[in-house]
Amino acid sequence: MLLFCLILINMTYPSMTFARVCSNIYFLNDLCRHALLPLQMFFAIERQSGLDDPVRLRRAESTRRVLSLELNHNRDVDRIHGNGINTLDIEVIDGRYMLSGGSDGVIVIYDLENNSKKPQYTCKAICTVGRSSRHVHKFSVETVQWYPHDTGMFVSSSFDKTMKVWDTETLKPAEEFQFDGNVYCHHMSPVARKHSLVAVGTKDPKVQLCDLKSGSRIHILQGHRGEILSVRWSPRYDHILATASTDSRVHIWDVRRASGSLFTLDQHNGDKSKTSSEAVNTAHNGRVNGLCFTADGLHLLTTGTDDRMRLWNSATGENTLVNYGKVVNESRKGLKFTVSRGCSPEFVFVPCGSSVAVYGLHSGELITMLRGHYNNVDCCEFHPDYQELYSGGKDCNILAWVPVLRQPDIEDEETNSKRGGTQAAINPAFEDAWSSDED
Amino acid sequence: MRKQLNKKVAVFKSRMNRKRALIADTFCLTKRRRCAADSVTGESQADIRSSLQYLVTLFSRKLFNDSLPPVVLKHQLYSLHNDKTSVDKQVNELRETGELLMFQLGFDSEAFALVFAEDFRAKVLQGEAGRGTLGTVEKFLAKLIPSCSDLSFNKEKMLKEFLFTDSEITQLVKSGVLTVRDAGSWWLSIPNSGKFIKYFIKGRKAVLGMVKKSKYGEILQTELEGRRTTSQVKFQMKYHIHDIIGAELVECIQTTSGTLLRYVDGNVN
């Protein structure tokens, strides 16, 4: 009797029962598992039902996007530089504006955001410090960096032995530091709140720290015996600085200490027997010309002209012995490379000749080579929010490597074909879904 | 109502099918990659050992009148296995257990030679048989093989830790087990390895020249293996091919007709 009633109820209200059943998250989960959905849908459903951490879906999707980076004919960057591009920097606050410095001494600011409703977009140059400006650098600009806390200011250093602190609004230098030798690189700490020191690496073996607040430059770090090719502050602690030099050594400094460096990086981890006696306690068997901390500041990557890249534990200075193989490096000045952020596993993007090599950070395997430049690539910068890579080189082009877009759903395609073919070109995010027709 | 429901289910199913079709999606690629990485690290030491044994068969013993133990270079292993870091780790493990010995050859700071410990001991003692230095060499080998995995020794270590006298150290240098590195320190070395290094460098140069002179600077690996070797090349072709691939002196490209080796510009050799 009860059974008969149940069956009757089922027959009259079948949709209700099904809906109730579907709302049971565990049923949905099992449905997905048995239906062998691709992992992406699986991650999304787990996230939706609360079975999984939201960060996991984000990290998985970021990794997928980085693995599918390629040149996109819809995305372009304005070509302003007449000579090679040496350095790129994307501001940290919005990720919207990009600075570039070139071998002709010109500095350009680009707007990376796509406000037009079309997918075809060229990143326009908003303003330039061109050759006609009174304050332009005389020789090539080697490093540019946005002020880490807002875009009102940026700092550039150049082979004309000066470092200039610019006001973005007026494009005039607010401060100028003179040095004795070519300035190879400079860096401001991205996390510092208590100090505003800029570490400068020049031809002089002494690392100079310039204070932006007071304009003083009396703080000097002694220890290197060759030109300083790269300096980098740790993104984890505001007092830890790493410097790399042509004497094959990398020193880690605590700027609060009066005495010398904390330690130097040793590629053999103290095993003095592995190498000839002159090469003891060196980070590389040649000039060390690139430094990059990982996003969490726990590891440091160094590249050298011995065609090797090494990963170090930044707290102990231990060589993790990850073998990346031959990372071709012929740069006479600093090499600017970058690490991805927000992916798992993380990736390193290194300019190698005329392409950008992508390696897995901890596995050391070569994932892919991004080919597209016509000449040597000098710098690359990763945009963490959109997982895009911008690279600049001697061919005066800045290329944007964009993740391949997903194919649209069948449902979306059907509705689009009903409304008309032109609708398909507009990104659904830009569609006006709230204005009423009566206005 | 039932019709609406059926339509919803149909759309859901079609969407699932479509999404399933996106299996070429890099998600599975990352999963595949992770699986591949797992399989390499999950490879036991036995695989590295078997690769080493395979490479040992490629070494030409007769060339040196059987006075040298079979020598394999560490970077030759990189041509057989994808993950360099795990190869390094496993080689170090074998060295810790005393099964394998590593030597710094001297012509390249990155080129390390690997020799099985038993082979090394056998050949050294065979070479020393009948000479006065035999006793010292035996003592040195006994100290070295199970416990010590250094590449070089300095005077302090030899005198204090190993308890050798100066004259004994001179005997070891004469017998070829130690080579001078610098004032007061010595490299561990293979006796009579000078000839090996000479032939090796010449042969490497000749093979690289063959690749470079080919049309477009590239040649199929199978074709290179089949080529007639010149008098410069004393070792087997495969031995040299593993060497140049592992040292990344040529670029390995997979094609439909096999592996293509392309000469990489900017080589020092």
Overall spatial form of chain A? globular
Q: Report the count of strand segments of chain B.
A: 9
Q: DSSP helix count of chain A?
A: 6
Mean pLDDT of chain A: 84
Helix-strand category of chain A: alpha+beta
Strand fraction band of chain A? 25-35%
Quote the distance from N terminus to C terminus of chain B: 78 Å
SSE topology string of chain B: HHHEHHEEHHEHHEEHEHHEE
Helix content of chain B: 40-55%
The biggest sheet of chain A, with number of strands, parallel, antiparallel or mixed sense and barrel status, is: 4 strands, antiparallel
Q: If helices are DSSP runs of H or I spanning 4 or more residues, what is the number of helices of chain B? A: 12
In short:
By secondary structure, chain A is α+β, with helices and mostly antiparallel strands.
Task: Tell me about this structure.
- Chain A: One of its GO terms (cellular component) is nucleotide-excision repair complex.
- Chain A: Residues 1-19 form the signal peptide.
- Chain A: WD repeats lie at residues 134-176, 221-256, 281-322, 370-401.
- Chain A: This is DNA excision repair protein ERCC-8.
- Chain A is of the alpha+beta class.
- Chain A has helices at 2-12, 14-22, 25-35, 39-49, 54-67, 410-419; strands at 69-71, 75-77, 85-90, 97-102, 107-111, 121-123, 125-129, 141-146, 153-158, 162-167, 172-178, 183-188, 197-202, 207-211, 219-221, 228-233, 240-245, 250-254, 263-264, 288-293, 299-304, 308-313, 338-339, 347-352, 355-360, 366-371, 377-383, 388-393, 398-403.
- Residues 13-19, 21-29 and 419-424 of chain A have low confidence and may be disordered.
- Chain B has 269 residues and is an alpha+beta fold.
- In chain B, helix 6 (117-128) packs antiparallel against helix 7 (134-144).
- The longest helix of chain B is centred in the C-terminal third of the chain and has 21 residues, at 193-213.
- The interface between A and B is large, with 41 and 42 residues.
